[in-house]
Amino acid sequence: MLVTLQELKRQLKLEDDFTEEDELLNLLGGAVQTRTETFLNRKLYAATEAVPEADPDGLKLPEDVKLGMLMLATHFYENRSSVSEVDQLEMPLSYKWLVGPYRFIPL
């Protein structure tokens, strides 16, 4: 998982010693990474990793994409259901604004 549990907790303003939702947070982190890679049509690699030559479309995780992933995790954490009494909107535009420029669209 490219977004660590500690980073998720900082983003969500949870204390490090709060462990009751660690399983959920790990699930969210993995889902956010998978969703972002699917949206981008690219595999993401840690900034410290080299992108393998066998993956010409691979991408080292840029800071703005990481921020978008943290924002998406926040959205999923705070909106745990797809139905509510208030209008649900598409994922905030900021996610696509941060992540979108890295999207690979095969021709």
CATH topology term: Hypothetical protein yqbg
Task: Kindly state the number of beta strands.
Answer: 2
Low-confidence stretches: none
CATH architecture: Orthogonal Bundle
Pfam families: Phage_connect_1
Protein name: Phage gp6-like head-tail connector protein
InterPro entries: Phage_gp6-like_head-tail, Phage_HK97_gp6-like
In short:
Pfam families: Phage_connect_1. InterPro entries: Phage_gp6-like_head-tail, Phage_HK97_gp6-like. The protein has 107 residues and is mainly α.
SSE topology:
Blueprint: H1 5-11, H2 22-40, E1 44-45, E2 59-60, H3 63-78, H4 93-99
Parallel strand pairs: 1-2
Note down, in words, how this protein is organized:
- With 107 residues, the chain is mainly alpha-helical.
- The chain has a single domain, classed as Hypothetical protein yqbg.
- Helices cover 46% and strands 4% of the residues.
- The protein is built from four helices and two strands.
- The chain has a two-stranded parallel ribbon.
- α3 packs antiparallel against α4.
- The chain is globular.
What attributes characterize this protein structure?
single chain; 107 residues; mainly alpha; Hypothetical protein yqbg; two-stranded parallel ribbon; 46% helix; globular; Phage_HK97_gp6-like; Phage gp6-like head-tail connector protein; Phage_gp6-like_head-tail
